[in-house]
Every structure is written in C-alpha cells, then in structure tokens.
Design goal:
There is one protein chain. By secondary structure, this protein is of the alpha/beta class. It has one domain: 3-Layer(aba) Sandwich (Rossmann fold), CATH 3.40.50. About 40% of the residues lie in helices and about 15% in strands. Helix 1 packs across helix 5. The longest helix has 24 residues, at about 160-185. It starts with a strand and ends with a helix. About 40% of the residues are buried. The structure holds flavin mononucleotide. It comes from Cellulomonas flavigena (strain ATCC 482 / DSM 20109 / BCRC 11376 / JCM 18109 / NBRC 3775 / NCIMB 8073 / NRS 134).
C-alpha cells in the first residue's frame, strides 16, 4: 500500500484557532495511508521579489516541505470575506521564484471553519481562485463549509457528533481518492 504525504496549512495564527482544532479532527478521521505534516506560516517574513535570489530559511523550509509532499490541504478561517493575509503570504512564497511554483500540478483541497453560518464559503472561493492561478489540481467536491460548534470537538480534535464525524471522514476519503487520481496521471518527481 502506498502512503501519501500530505502537507497542510492552517490559515490562522490564533492560539485558540478553531481551524487548528478542525485540522486535528481531519487528521484523526483521515484514511490510514495519508501522513500529515503541517507547514508553519507564522514566522515567514512578508514576501518580496527582492528575496527571489536568496530565500530566507523559513521560506526555504516551506519550499522544501512542499517539494517532499504528494498533496496539500488548506484549513482556513475567513477574514473579511477572504483568506487571512498570513496564508496568502505563505502561498505567495510557495509560488515563487518565477518558474519554481511549488503548487504546479499538485493535488489540493480546501476546507475551513467559522463561527458564522457561511462557514468560510467566501474565503474558500477566494482561495480557489488563487490556487487555480497557481495550477494546483483542486478537489471540487465535496465542498466543506464548517459552521463550528465548540461542543462538537474536544481540544485534541475528537469529534463527538456522529453526523459531523461522518461528513469529515467522507471529506478525507474523497480527498485521498482525489490525490490518487491526480497522481496517477501527474506523478510527482
Ligand atoms: C480580522 C477578522 C475578520 C473576520 N472576518 C470574518 C468573515 O469574513 N467571515 C466569517 O465567517 N468570520 C469572520 N471572522 C470571524 C472568524 O470566523 C473567527 O474569528 C474564527 O474563530 C477564526 O478562525 P480561527 O479560530 O481558526 O482563527 C473574522 C475574524 C477576524 C479576526
């Protein structure tokens, strides 16, 4: 059985992030042959083309982590109807230098949680536009707009509601199938 290496971004820098809780839940419920590594975004400087000749260590680590991954998963809050600046900054680093876009042909999926009922839908549309330009191979269904209910999750990501658990497990099973499908026709070097 092959194992797929999944790099994941949590779009929040909050120490009490509900999206981090969601990431823990997703990892718990994912198929066994997915292995997860978080790519930290909080210590990245703001991207500038001035760095293209000589990336700083944090950005080099981000590029290396993506180069070693088979797929990428984004778990993000919605900020002002888009994605948080810290996440966009990380994506900008990954997409450069020109010609060395880390997301090129990479299997990807997007999910997010909000305290509001729209459940990051608008942020996810924004993120999808960015990832389309970055030529990532996105899973388009199922969509997952999570209206976060604190009572449904323990701090370490255990899901106590059966319907939520089943939905999130299904999302990760579809993600695994998507990764396999994409890599069958677009193997990573
Ligand atoms: C700057 C800012 C902008 C926000 N904008 C939105 C928004 O557009 N839509 C939404 O549903 N929630 C919005 N929220 C509320 C977030 O959904 C809520 O803070 C959530 O807990 C953030 O996720 P996190 O806990 O993973 O950081 C915003 C919060 C902040 C701090």
């Amino acid at each position: 059985m092959s194992t797929y290496q999944v790099a994941y971004f949590v779009g929040s820098l909050s120490s009490t992030s509900i999206n981090r809780t969601l990431s823990k839940a997703l990892i718990r419920l994912a198929p066994d042959d997915l292995e997860f590594t978080e790519i930290p975004i909080g210590d990245l400087p703001l991207y500038s083309p001035d760095f293209d000749e000589d990336y700083p260590p944090e950005a080099r680590a981000l590029k290396d982590a993506l180069a070693g991954a088979d797929a990428v998963l984004f778990i993000t809050p919605e900020y002002n109807r888009s994605i948080p600046g810290a996440l966009k900054n990380a994506i900008d680093w990954a997409s450069r230098p020109w010609g060395q876009n880390s997301f090129d042909h990479m299997p990807a999926a997007v999910i997010g949680a909000s305290i509001g009922q729209i459940g990051t839908a608008v942020a996810q549309q924004s993120l999808r536009g960015v990832l389309t330009f970055c030529n990532a191979r996105q899973m388009t269904a199922p969509e997952a707009y999570i209206w976060f209910k604190p009572e449904v999750y323990t701090e370490d990501g255990e899901v106590t509601d059966e319907d939520t658990k089943s939905f999130l497990r299904g999302f990760m099973e579809e993600f695994r199938a998507h990764v396999e499908r994409v890599l069958t026709v677009l193997p990573r070097d």
